[in-house]
Design brief:
Helix 2 (about 15-65) packs parallel to helix 3, helix 3 crosses helix 4 (about 140-150) and helix 8 (about 305-315) crosses helix 9 (about 320-335). The longest helix has about 50 residues, at about 15-65. By secondary structure, this protein is α+β, with helices and mostly antiparallel strands. Strands 3-4-5-6-8-13-14-15 form an 8-stranded antiparallel beta sheet, with helices on both faces. It has a 5-stranded antiparallel beta sheet with strand order 1-2-12-9-7. Strands 10-11 form a two-stranded antiparallel ribbon. The chain contains 10 helices and 15 strands. The protein folds into 3 domains: about 1-55; about 65-280, Phosphatase 2c, domain 1 (4-Layer Sandwich), CATH 3.60.40.10; about 295-360, Ribosomal protein L11, N-terminal domain.
């Protein structure tokens, strides 16, 4: 009965309609086949992407050094976490021993992600480390690196912070290029001076013009971090530096950078890569070193009087003395091409000195190290 009914219907259907139905059926089969091919291709591309991300992640891990938990008189904890999966970003860190028992620290963020950022990341990290190991102070290391890397970054840029811990003086000295200053926690409150901050590496402008030295006795810590931590979103808003400092303080007497990133990732949304380096003097470090003196330095170039004025005011220099110091620094810069302005702050007050910046070449540092 069913077969006879179907034959009767087919017999009354016009030939053109039959052809149209056949064509539609053919198109349907072609569409199905095409969807199958697209699905298979998407799966293959997903596997290839996962494989490439895995390779990039392994390369990134190879570029991030294994830092011991103890360097000289300094306890060190470092951590890195990419924004998503194993894919590499441009964040980097390093901590290593230098001459006279000191410790060098490098942390930064190269613009870009994936394999394109890896070569630039390695270049910036190794360049900055090499200059610190040569004996240059952080400010000079960034200045020279800025000139060297200007063309190597391919119109990109990188932010960085380089630091040196001096166990004999009980101090840590750092310089930043477009990078956030570290969080310093201890018995004395610390508020960073960000006025006249130096631009990133590769930005087309001189960098490394600022430098800060603060005491770091036992019982204090310094947390260097990339902007991915402060820019993480918690409860719908940016975490910010103040809340990040509270999170670091909550880590207890033995702060762990891995735990910091884990806590941050679990409590909020982190859209960028994150790297952190937490430094704290060991209990057996020289507690007598590190007088309560903070030193802020800036190198004045010709035409930078406005930035110097903002810097001195941010350092707490009395307004009546700011103009006098700016004039003295401008006159020194006219004679020597630049002037070094140093502001020393302590319980007794603020002292400002102006001098010509010392000129010491890398070769001189190398000869001195070889002679020693």
């Amino acid at each position: 009965m069913v077969a006879r009914t179907v034959r009767e219907i087919v017999e009354v259907v016009p030939g053109p309609v039959k052809a149209l139905i056949a064509a539609l059926a053919g198109l349907l089969l072609m569409a199905g086949f095409g969807a199958l091919l697209v699905s298979l291709r998407a799966r293959r591309l997903a596997r290839q992407r996962a494989h490439l991300l895995g390779e990039v992640g392994l390369l990134q891990a190879a570029l991030l050094p294994e830092v011991p938990s103890r360097l000289g008189a300094l306890d060190v904890s470092v951590a890195y976490r990419p924004a998503e999966g194993p894919g590499a970003g441009g964040d980097f860190y390093d901590a290593f021993p230098i001459e006279d028992g000191g410790v060098g620290i490098v942390i930064g963020d190269v613009a870009g992600h994936g394999r394109d950022a890896l070569a630039r990341t390695a270049l910036v990290r190794y360049t900055l480390r090499a200059y610190l190991e040569t004996g240059l102070e952080p400010r000079k290391a960034l200045q020279i690196a800025g000139r060297i890397l200007e063309e190597e970054l391919d119109a990109g840029f990188a932010t960085a912070a380089v630091a040196v811990y001096d166990p004999r003086a009980g101090t840590i000295t750092w310089s930043c290029a477009g990078h956030p200053p570290p969080i310093v926690l201890g018995s004395r409150p610390y508020e960073p001076v960000t006025a006249a901050s130096s631009p990133p590496l590769g930005a087309g402008e001189p960098t490394g013009l600022r430098q800060t030295t603060v005491p770091l006795p036992p019982g204090t810590l310094a947390c260097f971090f990339t902007d991915g931590l402060a820019e993480a979103r918690v409860d719908g808003s940016l975490l910010g530096r103040e809340r990040l400092a509270e999170m670091v303080a909550s880590l207890g007497p033995e702060p762990d950078a891995v735990e910091l990133l884990r806590t941050l990732r679990a409590s909020g949304y982190a859209p960028d890569d994150m790297a952190a380096c937490i430094l704290s003097p060991a209990a057996d470090a020289d507690a007598a070193a590190g007088a309560a003196v903070r030193v802020e330095e800036i190198e004045l170039r010709r035409g930078g009087e406005g930035a110097l004025t903002r810097f001195l005011e941010a350092c707490g220099v009395p307004r009546a003395a700011v103009e006098r110091h700016v004039r003295a620094a401008a006159a020194e810069a006219d004679r020597h091409g630049s002037a070094l302005v140093r502001v020393r702050s302590c319980d007794e007050g603020v002292d400002v000195s102006v001098s010509a910046p010392p000129i010491e070449l890398i070769e001189a540092y190398s000869r001195r190290r070889l002679a020693s």
